[in-house]
Amino acid sequence: MHSIDFIHDLAVIMLIAGVVTVLFHRLKQPVVLGYIVAGVIIGPHTPPSPLITDQHTIDILAELGVIFLMFSLGLEFSLRKLRAVGATVAVAGLAEIVLMIWIGFEIGRHFGWKTMDALFLGAMMAISSTTIIVRALDELGLKREGFAQIIFGILVVEDILAICMMVLLTGLAVSGNVSPQEVALTFGKLTIFLVVSLVVGLLVVPRLLDYVARVKSNEMLLISVLGICFGFCLLVIRLGYSVAMGAFVIGAVMAEARALRNIERLIEPVRDMFSAIFFVTIGLMLDPRVLGDYLGPIVVVSIAVIVGKIVAVSVGSFIAGQEGRTSMRIGMGMAQIGEFSFIIATLGISLSVTSDFLYPVAVAVSVITTVLTPLLIRSADPLTKVLARAMPRRLSRVFGFYTGWLQSLRLEGDQAVIAGMVRKILMQVFINFCIVVALFLVSAYLVRDARIFAGWVSDSGIQKALGWGGALLLSIPFLIAAYRKLKALSMMLAEVGVRRSFAGRHTDNVRRVVAEVIPVISLAVMLVLLSALSSSILPPAEMLLLVLVVGALVVMLLWRQFIKLHSRLQIALIDTFQKPPAEH
Amino acid sequence: MHSIDFIHDLAVIMLIAGVVTVLFHRLKQPVVLGYIVAGVIIGPHTPPSPLITDQHTIDILAELGVIFLMFSLGLEFSLRKLRAVGATVAVAGLAEIVLMIWIGFEIGRHFGWKTMDALFLGAMMAISSTTIIVRALDELGLKREGFAQIIFGILVVEDILAICMMVLLTGLAVSGNVSPQEVALTFGKLTIFLVVSLVVGLLVVPRLLDYVARVKSNEMLLISVLGICFGFCLLVIRLGYSVAMGAFVIGAVMAEARALRNIERLIEPVRDMFSAIFFVTIGLMLDPRVLGDYLGPIVVVSIAVIVGKIVAVSVGSFIAGQEGRTSMRIGMGMAQIGEFSFIIATLGISLSVTSDFLYPVAVAVSVITTVLTPLLIRSADPLTKVLARAMPRRLSRVFGFYTGWLQSLRLEGDQAVIAGMVRKILMQVFINFCIVVALFLVSAYLVRDARIFAGWVSDSGIQKALGWGGALLLSIPFLIAAYRKLKALSMMLAEVGVRRSFAGRHTDNVRRVVAEVIPVISLAVMLVLLSALSSSILPPAEMLLLVLVVGALVVMLLWRQFIKLHSRLQIALIDTFQKPPAEH
């Protein structure tokens, strides 16, 4: 048969991976390390000479490994959890990532590496390894402790930031320069894409999967999940984003399906198989001689990862209001790098912007820091005691004051309620605006690139008017919703902001004006922005006027229906979150 | 990234497969049909033009689908079940396969096809589809009925015969001719390989997996299972057999692990994913125009499959002692072809001995017969009634007599016990002999092809003596065991066969002579046969004598130890079968 080579490769990978992982388990080391070592054994750099022949296919399977790894992370991620984790994790996560990228970049520059190499090194050092942390905490029996929950929260924040980082790095690598406008544009587009994907995904995907799950056929559920997952990945690739990000996002969307437990159970073996291949290929690329040549950087980076992460995360957690001991535990738990670093390294290679040595360095650092993780977690408490004893009394009193001051800052009572409502309304307006922008961008694509009207109408003005008008028509429910939310917000702000002591007997009038003016101005700003964004399909002035008049008529006639439609969509979306996940 | 093509292909396959299978489920048709239709939609022969770009990788994944399909069949097969199913299924299965191959061959010749095409057509028509049958019986709520159990038994027999057929077809295709000696040699080698694989496999694999399963890590168990599965497939490929057979055999071996439930649960999603790809690629290859051109053969073959199988299986079951109604139900349940036919068709293509049209014909026939299966099962009882009414009374009385006569034939009491013991002993001797032959063949390979002694000893005579002597030494426990079993058998035969009425006062002496002579002669025959088989490493006469003398000395000195060793191995093997499978 024609594919003996490939079966041979797979057999070698699976056999050696199996043996080595069982060995590593006996040595109480993570399975992931076993895979990497298996890869080194199989690899072309160690005798007995290359055991892999069909490198192309193995690479593709490894890429499937990345997709399934990220998809599983997405499944575990869940937007519910994101709402539950508070400010601590955001501060600690952000502090860690910014500091680590900076440290990594500086180390790279210090060793005289290329800018891109230094940047990718920073990115690789930024993200801790969920796999390793979960395993280590599990083995030490600490998985249910409070600090572990915060670690998981920080990991979620890291995941999001990592996704952003990957998008940014891809953009950087492709365009080569870092103009702020471009970064802003990239992030703007990404944000709109993510918001729309999440909203549409959450409305459609969980319902679809729950419908399929009702058949009680594992096979059908699995194929549907894979179909949706790869279909979304395809869309993501077409839009120029990384497939890893796509898998993560669609995983997070599927996490809201009631059949989540079942989906996880079905995806687990598939993920384990392909991720094993992924980790083995990491080992395959590892040339022991490179490790010797780069011993210096490896040691420096390892120390930087451990010390940097402990300091950044601990201080970040402390600043965000955690106790000293807990902060230390959190920091010590996250002092390693893992699968995400490999994915970023793979990204660098596939974009061909990084040097060959970066990969083995990342792998070596990951191995060293992984092995040390359980030790570090265990030594968190003793170290805290030592630090507490060594710290001058005045400093520790300052720390105590800080914690107290921070707690006094928390909003309470009415203020907290108002702040919560403002945040919620702004979020809703933002989401609606993103959807409207997406509608116009898609319409622009359809009219200009796909030329869907070209067959029927020859005049480009009418084509544009049709496209722009269609987008406007579809946007109306969301624009109305945005307008109503903004009005509610301005009324509230007018009530709170325009004090009677200041405006005297004009108070009511001033309030009314504020409440009316703010939403109209906001909406006008939105429309102008939209026109700018959709400039490529903005019809000529007279047609635009016609379209706007028709739009206004439609709004007047169907105001109530639009509101009903939108609130139905909104309820459906909220429903998705409030349905309890089915127990297995 | 470099593998966008592939992700694109996979996305298209999974998306369309997902949609079509959900649709097919609503239409109450088997999922497998949905996959094939999805393949046709995606395929190059239907608009919108080819959606698949990286055909190489998709083909490889489809081949993984075959491996996992066969592996799952092996897991469900279980040697225990084989021991439980009786003569009925062997007779019915054999009757069906021989008749169908013959019918298929004749149909092929009738249409003027090549000999190989006709032969492969016969093979494709011979094997019914486990997947379709299980599904149909499940949906009709008949899965636990008596006749369903017999159907499953026949399917097991079919699986074994299909494996033999594939080996034979491969041999035929490669060598091109069909000399009886070659067939005998092929089957001899295959038998030895299978027996040794099963014995060694059953001793090692279930224990290994149970050891791994104790860790309670799904990931580790899965990777170990995959490692063993692909490792064995590799061995099988190296020996020139089909990878499908290897997957099936190693599956059957793993079926004896206590962790079977867990293994099945882990393999299921992986199998579903890859088998979906396999079935879709079947659709991919389907050119609707070919279907039009070969409408005649398709109709004829479909009718032949349905009528032929119903007649062959029903009559076979009836001859083997089933009631008329049950026989009819069994026959009507098996009147379709499915996954095995595709695997055989794939084999023909990969060996490039069959014509292109054979594949679409097989697929079309499979689709037609699959759709008709539930109808046929439901109409079994009415048809039986009609037949019973239409049948002349005399004929039905003959049938009644036959059933009664058959039941009177069954051995009872002492005779049954003795027959059972004889069968068991002969089986044990056979297994031991296979192991010994395998030891000599491996030794011949090591000495002659791998030249393992070439580094130490230059004289080829000494090399041969070492190899032959080593094989003999390792064989001694099995030879002793064979000798002892044969002795026990001859004593029993002497007791039963040499009647006092015939031998008079010499009875005891005659019996003793018979009991002593038979085993010695058998063993001598074995050794001569061995010498012939291992002729390539048979040392020169004087060295051979030396080796034999040393062997005899070892036997005398370590007789008891050898017996103990062998019985320990035997107990371990029996243990494997007697451990109850762990419940999930």
Mean pLDDT of chain A: 83
Give the CATH class of the largest domain in chain A.
Mainly Alpha
List low-confidence stretches of chain A.
Answer: none
Strand segment tally of chain A: 0
Distance between the termini of chain A: 42 Å
Total domains of chain A: 3
The coarse silhouette of chain A is globular
> In oligomeric terms, what are we looking at?
homodimer
**Proportion of β residues of chain A?**
under 5%
| CATH topology grouping of the largest domain in chain A | Na+/H+ antiporter like fold
Give structural notes.
Two copies of one chain form a homodimer. The mean pLDDT of chain A is 83. Chain A folds into three domains: 4-378, Up-down Bundle (Na+/H+ antiporter like fold); 380-409; 413-578, no CATH class. Chain A has 24 helices and no strands. Chain A is mainly alpha-helical. Chains A and B meet through α1, α3, α10 and α12 of A and α1, α3, α10 and α12 of B. Chains A, B: Residues 13-377 form the Cation/H+ exchanger transmembrane domain. Chains A, B: The chain crosses the membrane at residues 6-24, 31-48, 60-77, 84-105, 117-138, 150-174, 186-208, 220-237, 298-320, 332-351, 357-377, 425-445, 465-483, 513-537, 543-559. Chains A, B: This is Cation:proton antiporter.
